[in-house]
Design goal:
The chain has 3 domains: about 5-85, Uridine Diphospho-n-acetylenolpyruvylglucosamine Reductase, domain 2; about 90-205, Uridine Diphospho-n-acetylenolpyruvylglucosamine Reductase, domain 3 (2-Layer Sandwich), CATH 3.30.465.10; about 205-405, Vanillyl-alcohol Oxidase, Chain A, domain 3. Helices cover about 25% and strands about 25% of the residues. The chain contains 12 helices and 19 strands. It has helices at about 15-25, 45-60, 110-115, 135-140, 145-150, 175-185, 220-230, 265-280, 295-305, 325-335, 380-395, 420-430; strands spanning about 10, 40, 60-65, 80-85, 90-95, 100-105, 120, 155-165, 170, 190-200, 200-205, 205-215, 240-245, 255-265, 285-295, 310-320, 340-345, 365-375, 400. The strands form 4 sheets. The protein has an 8-stranded antiparallel β-sheet with strand order 15-12-14-13-17-18-16-19. Strands 5-6-10-8-9 form a 5-stranded antiparallel β-sheet. This is FAD binding domain protein. Keywords: FAD, Flavoprotein, Oxidoreductase.
Length: about 450
């Protein structure tokens, strides 16, 4: 029996329905890409990953990887490539002595925290319940309370990889340290396939509470300037966001300021939210102070905000700390093209003021902005995508860079890393994958190859 027959693989020449399901069935964005892998391996164990790479080497195909399928640009779906889908490759194993949890890339933040919560532990993974940890951590990981708990990739202690030539390696600060450096922030250009993450957990706070303040959209500047003014020095266990969105109660879109705090006692949780309650400006439509919540409830809310079976276009920017942030973001927050779309400002201070560890992730500012345009029919594609493009073009002069996770390099290229870190990352990519076997950054016409991205504003 040939090596290919040992694999759970669907070839492009197989039945159309089976191939299409394998190609895009797990792609979250229903704005499907017109790219067609030569085959899709539904890996169930590490040997399948190694075998897929070996076949790619033999037949001179590229290799692409899918962990959660949540990439807005569907980076995993590439022409002339064998797509390794890790959806059926599952592992979660906790070492209760060290607090290190070993996970496969397709493990989601919700899955890992369902297990960890039983042991009184937490991992600050992605907010959406169905985001795979693979792409999330490679991009840096803007997880729970990132503004002060730090980036999720800072909790990565080691990784196991399969390289572009089929080697199986462990990477940490002492072994294959350049790959370990790159894994924390390289995004979809990482020059190997991660099969396991070894993650440091943290104690699970026993009490969560949240406050929300809803303003009419013509109060956007008032709302954002208020929450921006308190964010930098706010309680370190509290997440702070400002969202432009539609809610059922109102015909027009509104502006929601939300705070979620994680504390060891009910008293501490309420006290942490009191500063916002005491300083909220007048003019709000509704408020809900210090409501009891849980991580599971927050995952549910995030899932509802990112519905399945829809078409998406997303983009983002780190806004210059010296900009008039409210003026820069006002159009994006107040001209949403559909009732399911939303715009987000995420408070990043004080982590954005701290020196980062030596790793690929090296771009941040106090102000993270992202727009998520969500619609249902192809007839609205041009309108919704054009709005995002127009908003981002106007914002470009005030941006210092971009987060990989909400990017589409086919549409826009900018700065993703510090100058030195970007150059180092491209050198590491060429060292470990000189032929560009592993599909890297999907730019316009998929041309970047081993050269990677320019990393210029």
């Amino acid at each position: 029996m040939s090596q290919q027959n040992l694999l759970p693989i669907t070839w492009k020449t197989d039945a159309v329905e089976a191939y299409e399901h394998a190609r895009v069935g797990r792609v979250f964005n229903h704005r499907r890409p017109h790219r067609y892998p030569v085959g899709v391996v539904n890996a169930e164990r590490e040997e399948h990953i190694v075998q897929a790479v070996q076949i790619a080497l033999q037949k001179n195909f590229r290799v692409s990887v899918r962990s959660g399928g949540h990439s807005w640009a569907a980076w995993s779906v590439r022409d002339n490539a064998i797509l390794i889908d890790l959806g059926n490759y599952k592992q979660i194993e906790l070492n209760e002595t060290t607090g290190i949890v070993t996970v496969s890339p397709s493990t989601t933040g919700k899955m890992i925290n369902d297990l960890l919560s039983e042991k009184g532990l937490l991992f600050p993974g992605g907010h959406c319940p169905d985001v795979g940890l693979g792409g999330f951590l490679l991009q840096g990981g803007m997880g729970w309370v990132c503004r002060s708990w730090g980036w999720a990739c800072q909790y990565v202690k080691a990784i196991d990889v399969v390289t572009a030539d089929g080697q199986q390696l462990k990477c940490n600060e002492k072994e294959n340290e350049d790959l370990f450096w790159a894994a924390r922030g390289a995004g979809p250009g990482f020059p190997a396939i991660i099969t396991r993450f070894y993650l440091q957990t943290k104690p699970l706070p026993k009490h969560m509470r949240s406050s929300t303040y809803i303003f009419p959209k013509n109060h956007f500047k008032t709302a954002l300037n208020w929450v921006k003014s308190i964010a930098e020095t706010y309680d370190e266990d509290t997440e702070i966001v400002c969202v432009g969105l539609y809610i059922p109660d109102y015909e027009e879109s509104v502006v929601l300021v939300g705070l979620v705090t994680f504390k060891s006692s009910e008293h501490e949780a309420i006290a942490a939210l009191q500063e916002a309650e005491d300083s909220v400006p007048s003019g709000y439509l509704q408020k809900d102070f210090a409501r009891s919540t849980t991580l599971q409830q927050e995952y549910m809310h995030q899932g509802l905000a990112n519905p399945e079976g829809h078409r998406y276009c997303a983009d983002n920017a780190y806004i210059d700390n010296d900009a008039d942030v409210a003026s820069v973001l006002e159009e994006a927050f107040t001209t949403l093209p559909s009732r399911k779309s939303f715009a987000l400002w995420f408070a990043m201070a004080p982590v954005s003021r701290r020196p980062l560890p030596d790793m690929a992730l090296s771009m941040q500012s106090d102000h993270y902005f992202a727009i998520y345009t969500i619609w249902e029919t192809a007839s609205d594609d041009d309108r919704c995508q054009s709005l995002v493009s127009n908003v981002m073009n106007k914002m470009a002069p005030f941006s210092v860079g971009q987060y990989l996770g909400d990017s589409d390099f086919q549409v826009r290229n900018t700065k993703y890393w510090g100058e030195d870190q970007g150059k180092k990352l491209m050198r590491i990519r060429k060292k470990w994958d000189p032929e560009g076997r592993i599909c890297g950054y999907l730019d316009n016409r998929d041309q970047s190859g081993v050269e990677g991205l320019r990393n210029k504003l």
